[in-house]
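Re: that chain you flagged

S.,

Sorry for the slow reply, it's been a week of failed gels. I finally had a moment to sit down with the sequence you sent. For the record, here it is as I used it:
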Amino acid sequence: MKLTTEDRNRIKESIGEKYIKVSIRPEGLFRYPAGVTGLRALNYSPDIIRSIPGAAPSSFCGVGNPFTLARAKRNRESSCRKVIFLEASAESLPFCQDSFRVVISNGVFNLTVDKARAIPGVFRIMKPSGRLMIADQILINDLPKDTKARVQSWLR
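Prediction finished late last night. Pasting the structure tokens below so you have them in one place:
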């Protein structure tokens, strides 16, 4: 089933609305625990949780959220890790071919509208001997047949 440009825009808008809220306070917006409770539920070591700088643990929701980039950059400043944050679309990754040995995707592909375009892009930017690590949500029921119902249920 092919989605129209309008459908794609509606999905992206819905995702944006949800994740603006998530960037402020993730609790209660997911079917799983978020914040420090989520870190504990995933069995992160208390030492690791304590070592995470600033308010970062309270905003943990298991996904990379473009609306938290400013917060992530502030948290990076209080740590000694060498990290770069860049907002980009999974459907059009702005990196050269064979750039990375490891690509980690956490909660990205379930929110990506054009998965058939995004996944080959990941393999394009990975070195030939690279590794891809994915943690994501999967659909366990059938997709709605009707396009309108599919678009409306995107973030269920």
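What I noticed first: The chain has a mean pLDDT of 78.

Talk soon,
D.
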